């Protein structure tokens, strides 16, 4: 019976030991030569056989390779991490089976040995196989895949028993070797070796920027669900930066003669929590970042690109857009037509002659979004960033500059129309009213260009000159774009919408002045008054919650003589004169 017990402990059934409906191996009931108490003792012992049977079935089912799209019957996707896990588990299971062989040899040599002897030899495998059974069950229930297997193994290594933790760490080490090789392929060669979508870095496809940015290169990002908790996010982000840079600049010797060094250091790694990993990634990041710094700052003049974006997206060249307004004024009145986009681009090129060089001008294009009632609201500015400066001016940065462009363009257009109405206002004795409106718009636009745009651009240029690290420059550019949006009311929806409504009212005011009927309507002037009062009160209310934003200067300039606060928006005498 002891030999059949060993057979059952190895996961196989027979006449005495059989598997029930749940798969548990137990003593066959009602055997006359086995006492009930002995059967109970044997059933407790057969738990090892049940563990062995389940674990071996898991290994057999998941060890092979299928295509990336195929799944096993239990929902688990195949992959190199799952295969490494199965190899590690099988190594432990083989040690258990070898122990059974040793016990069987001793039983053959000494037939007086009892069940207690067998138990004493296999006792240490109860917690080990039990932990492996729990591990397999949790992997199946969670449908774990790829790097998430590393995370599950890492959590299970914190078990109380030293022997169990040691076994799980060996299995974890096997899976980490797969992870380190993927990291090496990515960080040393710029290759995403991820046939089964298991890595924590993923390809996001070849996307064209909505702002007209760089095209034709793959974009990559982190896959948070696959990121092990034992791998700090900062290291993962630096790995993403290094590999993405190498992928983008394939064919260039970025890390040069240090390639063999970095590859050897990756092959020496054995655990994710090793300080050597952080040091290695930092060294690679510094090497790549300095090379890219020279590439973008010295060879491709990123400062010139920044000034160009300031002149266009941020309306730094005011004379360019004044000329454009004059040429496009008729083209963009009313809903856009099929030829509107072509016409406004011709107007932009004509306005830019003598102001912008021909080469950067070709990378700008005005786009029209059909479906708008007003051509000005449908206007967008797209720009193709020069290679490799998309490393600095990414999609998110250009998108934020696009928002600022539309906002500043609306403001500048209102200013342009108010100035055009000056002669009409002089003839109709509306110059005092128009002067107040011009003062408000001129002050607002001056704040945007001086306190917001120019101060941020100057600060960014200074930061670019003081560092030799491209990642620092990228962060500075992102902070630059975020700071511009933050101080331009774009994140405060009530104020932003209020300004847009005021712009619409002022444009309507200009239209009324141009009519032959003469004075603006009283109701329109009252609406403008209420809107200015609302904006002034709103800014005064929210400014304590934004101590780092320079709205105090704006409010001071608008209300430098307490005129608006005293009259609550606009002189009532002006309104009475329009009755």
H and E order: HEEHHHHHHHEEHHHHHHHEEHHHHHHHHH
Q: What is the global morphology?
A: elongated
Mean pLDDT: 83
Biggest β-sheet, characterized?
2 strands, antiparallel
What is the first-to-last residue Cα distance? 113 Å
Enumerate the strands of the largest sheet in spatial order, edge to edge or round the barrel.
Answer: 1-2
Rg result = 36 Å
- Please identify the structural class as seen in this structure: mainly alpha
Which consecutive residue ranges, at least 5 long each, have pLDDT under 50? 208-216, 569-579
Helices, by number, come to: 24
* Overall strand count: 6
Strand content is under 5%
Write down the oligomeric state: single chain
Q: What share of the residues lie within helices?
A: 55-70%
SSE layout and pairing:
Blueprint: H1 2-9, E1 17-19, E2 25-27, H2 36-45, H3 47-62, H4 80-109, H5 115-122, H6 125-142, H7 147-156, H8 162-189, E3 201-203, E4 220-222, H9 233-248, H10 259-267, H11 275-299, H12 302-312, H13 318-328, H14 340-352, H15 358-362, E5 364-368, E6 379-383, H16 395-420, H17 422-427, H18 431-466, H19 470-487, H20 493-514, H21 522-542, H22 551-558, H23 563-567, H24 572-576
Antiparallel strand pairs: 1-2, 3-4, 5-6
Helix pairs in contact: 1-4, 3-4, 3-6, 4-8, 6-7, 6-8, 7-8, 8-9, 8-10, 9-11, 12-18, 13-14, 16-18, 16-19, 16-20, 18-19, 18-22, 20-21
